[in-house]
Design a protein that fits this description.
Length: 280
């Protein structure tokens, strides 16, 4: 049975950067929540007025993306079967490992509070019963290498376009598959994945939301698991069609000499004009 590792890479999940920790919008939000400003998550919906002072501001402050990603992964059939592990990797190389038995709060503000607690305690709810665990200073390459996957798949708009990702999953070899989805709304991956030698696929011509890509991939994996044999049986068809075309080409090539034989038979009738000249 295959084991899947879903990784949200370079996600824009982080605490308030030091550059804007004293900005009014940040202080007001922290005061309203009864927390220190440096201990709350950066959120574009609340702290956008201060975004002009941080780099790559057009993609930062999106805790909602990991929330959607984890909710989809943890509620999937594969996760319920214990065959899917979800990880969140951030722009600052923080990695959140999620226990498949975790029941995340569907309410977004509660999720934000949970992650802020995780950044304080490093593990939630306790070391004895770790449902969420934070590991800092872990690059994407280090995370993937530690999982020791047989295949690494990256969903990328610049990858090979495919209309049937389920068929691509059937073609994979090995029992440990790592699937990487970008955790950002704009731009591209910040992490270097060249050493991982992944297979890159694109699910369409348009830029999709992270949760849309995640849902499509989960459905495709589910289809490949349930109907893998049927999808695999479709593969020889093009080869058979090619063989038939070769067979069809064979008789036609054999028939061509037969069609030329009457032409050779008509060849003696060509001198008739000469006979007419002799009659003259």
């Amino acid at each position: 049975m295959r084991q899947y590792y879903f990784i949200l890479a370079d996600s824009e999940l982080e605490l308030i950067p030091s550059e804007i920790v004293n900005e009014r919008c940040v202080l007001n939000n922290a005061r309203a929540r009864g927390k220190a400003p440096e201990k709350i998550l950066l959120d574009a919906s609340h702290h956008h007025p201060a975004f002009g002072k941080i780099r790559e501001s057009d993609r930062r402050g999106r805790p909602d993306i990991p929330h959607f990603f984890l909710m989809l992964c943890l509620d999937s059939d594969l996760s319920v079967q214990g065959r899917l592990r979800a990880f969140v990797h951030t722009r600052n190389n923080d990695v959140i490992a999620v226990n498949p038995e975790t029941r995340l709060p569907p309410n977004y503000p509660r999720f934000v509070g949970l992650i802020e607690t995780l950044y304080e305690k490093q593990v939630v709810p306790s070391a004895e019963n770790a449902l969420l665990e934070l590991r800092q200073g872990v690059t994407l390459e280090t995370l993937v290498s530690a999982l020791k996957p047989d295949e690494v798949i990256v969903l990328d708009t610049n990858g090979e376009k495919t209309d049937s990702f389920a068929e691509k999953m059937v073609e994979l070899k090995g029992d440990r598959i790592a699937i990487i989805v970008g955790g950002f709304s704009k731009g591209t991956f910040r992490s270097d994945m060249s050493k991982l030698k992944p297979k890159r696929y694109s699910l369409g011509d348009r830029m999709m939301k992270v949760w849309t890509v995640t849902a499509k991939v989960l459905c495709s994996v589910d289809v490949s698991e349930k109907y893998g044999d049927l999808l695999a049986s479709k593969k020889p068809k093009p080869a058979k069609g090619k063989a038939h075309s070769d067979e069809a080409a064979g008789p036609s090539s054999e028939a061509s000499p037969k069609t030329t034989k009457p032409a050779k038979a008509k060849a003696p009738s060509k001198p008739r004009p000469a006979r007419k000249k002799k009659a003259e």
